[in-house]
Amino acid sequence: MSQPALKVIDGGQKDRRARLRELYETYGGSVYERCRYLLKDSTQAEDAMQEVFARALAHADGFRGEASPLTWLMKITTHHCLNQLRAERAPWRRWFERDAAARPEGDRGEQALETRELVRALLSRVDPETQAAVVHYWVGEMTLEEVAAVLGRSVPTVRKRLERFAALTNEELRVS
Fold this sequence. Notes:
The chain has helices spanning about 15-40, 40-60, 70-90, 90-100, 110-125, 130-140, 145-150, 155-175. About 20% of the residues are buried. Helix content is about 75%, strand content about 0%. Helix 1 (about 15-40) crosses helix 3 (about 70-90), helix 2 (about 40-60) packs across helix 3 (about 70-90) and helix 6 crosses helix 8 (about 155-175). It is elongated, with a radius of gyration of 19 Å. By secondary structure, it is an all-alpha fold.
């Protein structure tokens, strides 16, 4: 049985950089193309590709050698891009966009403050575990599986909490 290809990342800093460079040179094009396909934007795809390789480096211990490094990177890529798309569609983002369109161009500081206050107000209406799930999922761009693991809950439980928060946010946006 061969040694897992990413085992070298567990080595010293020099080995980690060399292995990351090797992964990037070997699979960077494939990762970029997947990002571009999912995000439909080349600039976002470039940013996402960099984030994928940063996550791969940070989570190298998650690679168990059961699949090829390309398969592992594609999984990270897909999760990251889908989370990014979900975050862009998050219900509370509509309030930000609507509020931004109504403000003069030079009024960004006040808008950011009001936006933070709205998010805080919405989060204060739910329990601390739901708050953590919302922040991990929509802000931290974690997958449902990652959020469930961090919270020690099942994926369906996390999904229900996020859906309830989205419903609360949608209701609040209709009122305001």
